[in-house]
Amino acid sequence: MTVLPSRPARPVDPALVSIALEVAGRLANDASDVIMATAGRGARPDGDDSPFDWVTDTDQTLERHTRRVLTGEFPGIPVFCENVDVPFDAEYRWVVDPIDGTANYVAGVPWCAYSLALVDRWGPVVGVVADPYRAQIYAAARGRGMRANGAPVRLGEQSAAPIVCTEMTRSGPWPGMGEFITRAAAAGTGVRVLGSKALAVAQVALGHATAAVLHGYHEWDVAGAVALAVESGAAVLDRRGDDDPLPVDGLLVADPAVADEVLRWWQSALEYRIADGRV
């Protein structure tokens, strides 16, 4: 079993955390309503871009609304999203993904999310993920735990299914993905690719899946869900196995009881790919 070192946590003004949670939760509810009202209406973006690169009118509407509210409530904190560069040396920053799982949203597949997080250099301070199709708002704040529609969530309260979530990269399967799936299957664990990085990580925080492995992502994809994972008691590791509240080079989120085993599958799959001359 992975024993997690205590994460150095910078104290945060409790008043800031409280108002950030309230505003983020309100924005997540707004986004959930908009997504449910517009999903699957055939609003496929023009052009021949990959679905990984699609930006819909709803993305843009939610991004503008999120930015307008956050800049009004927190004028000194920059907002970071797909098309806006923000200095990473800012004391705090908001990161938002208006629709994580855009291809699913466009098709009406019930698996997409709105993700928002307040981040400092120690990792997520506040995170919310809206799961519109399940009418759930997941929220967490540093040192305050995780909640699903207001109910506390903590790993260990139920046994997770032997499922690992992962996602494709923009170019397809990540290096070693096939070998990883084979190793997981040999251990009696299924691997699922469902189309939303935020919801993949959230499943671990909720205790529905034992782990999530993401080879490639942006901060806005995962910051909100990582906040949930940290506060639910999950292990959050990079691909080297180092404890990290917001890794930038590969992400493993897992129930601590299985984190070492899943990490071995991942590292072995990458080594196998390299040894086989396919990287």
From TrEMBL:
Q: Print the keywords alphabetically.
A: Magnesium, Metal-binding
**Chain sites annotated for binding Mg(2+):** 82, 97, 99-100, 221
Reaction catalyzed: a myo-inositol phosphate + H2O = myo-inositol + phosphate
UniProt key word Ion transport: no
Q: Does the keyword Transferase apply?
A: no
The record's InterPro entries line, in alphabetical order, gives: Inositol_monophosphatase-like, Inositol_monophosphatase_CS
Question: Which residues, by range, are in coiled-coil regions?
Answer: none
A Gene Ontology annotation in the biological process aspect, one of them, is:
signal transduction
Give the GO molecular function terms. inositol monophosphate 1-phosphatase activity; metal ion binding
**Cofactor or coenzyme needed:** Mg(2+)
Q: What is its EC number?
A: 3.1.3.25
What enzyme category does the UniProt record give? hydrolase
Give any Pfam family that matches: Inositol_P
Q: Matching PANTHER family, A to Z?
A: INOSITOL MONOPHOSPHATASE, INOSITOL-1-MONOPHOSPHATASE-RELATED
State the name under which the record lists this protein.
inositol-phosphate phosphatase
Could you read off the lineage of the organism from its UniProt record? Bacteria, Bacillati, Actinomycetota, Actinomycetes, Pseudonocardiales
